[in-house]
Design a protein that fits this description.
Layout lengths: L1 H21 L16 E10 L6 E8 L10 E7 L3 E6 L7 E4 L10 E11 L4 E12 L4
Length: 140
Amino acid sequence: MNNLKFSALLILLVISLTFFTGCCPNQLTPPNSDAQVDIRGTILNINPAQVNSNILGTIYVEGLLYEDTFYDKASIKITSSTLIYQVDNQLSSNDQFVQIPFSVLQTGMMVEVTFTGPVLESYPVQATAKKVLVLDAFAQ
């Protein structure tokens, strides 16, 4: 009898997990979207570059290691070719992606970052951002 209850509970748990992960609304992807997200987390530190060059500055991001991410901490170089977008759901009922400058980034923002080029496998990793997507102006 206990095996029957355990099996029923296990089946209910699997069905519940399948339902909740399968019923999420389709998320729009920003322009030039990649399927890969290297890190998702909160910006904890921003260092603008001191000299006028291709490098705009660096951000330090920490987050959880998710199933679709590769890193939980990263020091990320932002260059003039880095694409920076913010989710703006004020424009309509659907989320829209608005390109923003590096100067708009602030500590506390929740971001997804995709890297380009080599990744220095120190801890935290060091990489150059191909794309930064601001998900939430201030993470919980």
